[in-house]
Design goal:
mainly alpha
Length: about 70
Amino acid sequence: MLKGLVTALHVIMSIALIASVLLQSGKSAGLSGAIAGGAETFFGKKKGMDELLGKVTMVVAILFGVTSLLLGLW
């Protein structure tokens, strides 16, 4: 019963992780994008929605890792 619940939670977390990564805005391509992207990160010019999606992605990834470990131990 508990293993089935953890498996269902694992599937939900995997779908949520994929969705949260795909919803984030892409970085600029090329060398100029790498330089500008590093400067934006360094000076903290993140937009509101991107910052929220970054935090959501981090939390969902941690929960995904925890459910992966639980399923691996069973």
